[in-house]
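Notes continue from the previous slide.

Worked example: a multi-chain complex. Inputs as given:
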Amino acid sequence: MKVNFLSTVLFFFISCFSTLDAACQLNNSPNGSIKISFINTLNSVPIILDAVNYTNCWNENFTISALKYYISNVQFKTSNKKSIKEKNSYHLIDEENIVSKSFLCTVLPGNYLTLSFLIGVDSIKNVSGAQTDALDPLNSMFWTWNSGYIMFKLEGNSPNSTIVNNKIEYHIGGFAGTNNVLRQVELNLENNKALININSITEIVVQADVGKLWNAVHELKISQTPVCSTPGAPAAGIADNYSKAFTVIKIIN
Amino acid sequence: MKIKIIISLVVIVMLATAFIYKAPPHKLTYLKLFIPKGWPKPATDIFVTNPLTEEGFVLGKKLFYDGRLSKDGNFPCSSCHQQFAAFSTYGHDYSHGFNNSLTKRNAPGLFNLAWQKAMHWDGGINNIEVQPLTPITAPNEMAETLFNILIKLKVDTAYVRLFKAAFKDGVINSQHMLKALAQFTGSIQSYNSKYDKVKRGEDSFTVSEKMGYKTFLDKCNSCHTEPLFTDNSFRNNGLTLNFKLPDSGRMTITGNPTDLYKFKVPSLRNCSVTLPYMHDGRMFSLGKVIDHYRKGIDTTQATLDTLLKKGLFISDQERIDLLSFLYALKDSEMLRDPRFIQANDILLPVNYDH
């Protein structure tokens, strides 16, 4: 009798929850997922904060203590020329925080040709007041003296730096007019074939080569520019450089 | 057996009610920003993405007066923004901050903020919601971090209640804190000075005020434009350079050399209580300000406003009358408005009967 009674109550509970589950699944259209992972590298080797001495193309030694940047407005193009945009697409990639270096986008199944994104936070969010999550000013990526996000941040030390404690500090921001440091990156997925299946996760591994910072488009020498922390032409130049850093190195279907 | 049936029934009823019962809808008392007759549209849509509610206002007010937003507890927003001084720092060129430090610019009054396109003397802040980040984190002001403030707020049950009342998900985060602060500061409005009442036909100017108004329209209105008494522009008004505290003004933000030494044109509303004047608070009386425009302008500066190249011709009598008019811009109702006064007990409903 006792068993009977308990099992009745239990059955009641289970049936309640299982009907709920089924309802959830029915309401959703079948989706695939793309996981985008970022690996920050120097000389094709993942960087290590603080511990490793690096040398740039100008033979200047340096260490990196912090590397953070925003990836926003993630978009895919499919083989039938559809453009798929991630909703509320704002991600802060923080070298120190492993979890932050990859994120999942739910997309329709299909054959994906390109991945594009903005390095930085689009101008609208720079003027829209208090935000949360990746855009929370808690993340120390928001200027308090000149409203706007720091789109890219690299801090470290170098004997070639002329400022106090041999610091290097690149806080790249600015979203208006010629000071705009937002850079669009489009990466081809065709060679690697990103085929997204229903209920499976395809991983796109993007490499960000920090070495590009020093000479991809313009010359950046630590001895001349150890610090850049205001919007303007130097910041825009550095943005040109790091916009060349991104390549797809692997797609895992 | 009977007991078991009863228990079963109770369980079933409880489960059934759990499914039928919906949490009561989150009730917010919506408020509207008052737009006085004849005023332009607000320059910003501050309360579009941040709907103004009584609950948000009450939370914002508590935060505004709470010293815990500063590192040592001594510097709430209200320490530099005092209601009787139209929310400026009364009689201080620079305001006091953490550890006996001083600010580098004069604290402006806070009112009619929805009509301001940009905050700060250099216009560096593009949205009222993110303005508090500057004084909160500046080492010579409140010297605190958002992280620490949120820890302090989260352990206070009064705040837990107030955040729940003001925001649907009730989360205590920086976004909600900043939005609530904006609801309070954005609600501070000035439109009941004697000038406003004269304009509405409820009062009349004295002869001197009337003459002063005429001088004002002639000499001041092109920059300090009615009814806000500012055109929100940035201009170099020819102050001699302060070499001990160099300040490039607007150029700091734009990087544009043509913006060197330009500062925001402040509103003249309540100017009789927002002394001292100018971005560095160098002038302690309105008479001195008028005298600056009469004969103190440094005409050697390349970015000097074209309207000031020759100074302003204001006679001694006009100076007297202009001062009478400027005093008529004091909005005593705002300066005493109980809505803006720190609540003794924030949990009691506040009665606004005016």
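Summary box: The CA atoms of residues 127 and 146 of chain A lie 11 Å apart. Helices of chain A lie at 2-27, 123-126, 233-242.
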